[in-house]
């Protein structure tokens, strides 16, 4: 309101009694205060984009049991002040890290990055070979003798390996047979390896537009690329070129 040279701004809120009562009973201000606390001064500028990412992400998570289980694992291992994953690749990486940390115990928590890297190398070899099941011989080939020590540390006292299912135990004449407990674990590890900030070698799957188009149409790669999503596209600089659109 302006009168002469004086301007007055008034913010007026009108609440319906029943709506206000429901709002209080539902603790609707809880999410509001949570986002204000974790975002601080950037609350205003970042809120809309953050909520959009979270809503789209949570909608997909709630439709898929394995994703929901991983989100629960992330919540169980979350430290005060740390942010929750808002993309599929973040969800997989955080959940797998939490699973390894739980299996290893707090004393071995510092070994988690090395153990994840070893699992990632096995996942990459499996994806490039287009296989779900793999043997202990395949593990040796993928890792080499030095990294095998880390792989052996993954095994618990009963021989089980976190995130890995043992289909057949090793015998004197036959290698052990494994598979990731969920194929998407293998796909997520592979997808993570393609991110530029991981320092992975350049992947021929997107050396040019034709190769990228072929990769996007490859059924064995479809879910791995979907897990990487926009993060993978941005980091790997895959643009939606006309030749890549069917």
Summarize the structure.
The chain is built from ten helices and five strands; from the N terminus they run ββααααααβαββααα. By secondary structure, it is mainly α.
Structural write-up:
- This protein is mainly α and 246 residues long.
- The protein folds into two domains: 1-63, no CATH class; 65-244, no CATH class.
- The protein is built from ten helices and five strands.
- The chain has helices at residues 17-25, 29-39, 43-63, 65-77, 88-104, 112-129, 136-154, 183-193, 209-217, 219-235; strands at 2-3, 6-7, 134-135, 164-168, 177-180.
- Strands 3-5-4 form a three-stranded antiparallel β-sheet.
- The N and C termini lie far apart (56 Å).
- Residues 238-246 have low confidence and may be disordered.
Biggest sheet, spatial arrangement of strands: 3-5-4
Q: What is the count of distinct domains?
A: 2
The total beta strand count reads: 5
**What string gives the helices and strands in order?**
EEHHHHHHEHEEHHH
| Binned strand content | 5-15%
Question: Tags for this entry?
Answer:
disordered C terminus, mainly alpha, 246 residues, two-stranded antiparallel sheet, three-stranded antiparallel β-sheet, 2 domains, 59% helix, single chain
Could you give the topology of this structure?
Blueprint: E1 2-3, E2 6-7, H1 17-25, H2 29-39, H3 43-63, H4 65-77, H5 88-104, H6 112-129, E3 134-135, H7 136-154, E4 164-168, E5 177-180, H8 183-193, H9 209-217, H10 219-235
Antiparallel strand pairs: 1-2, 3-5, 4-5
Helix pairs in contact: 3-4, 4-5, 5-6, 5-8, 6-7, 6-8, 8-10
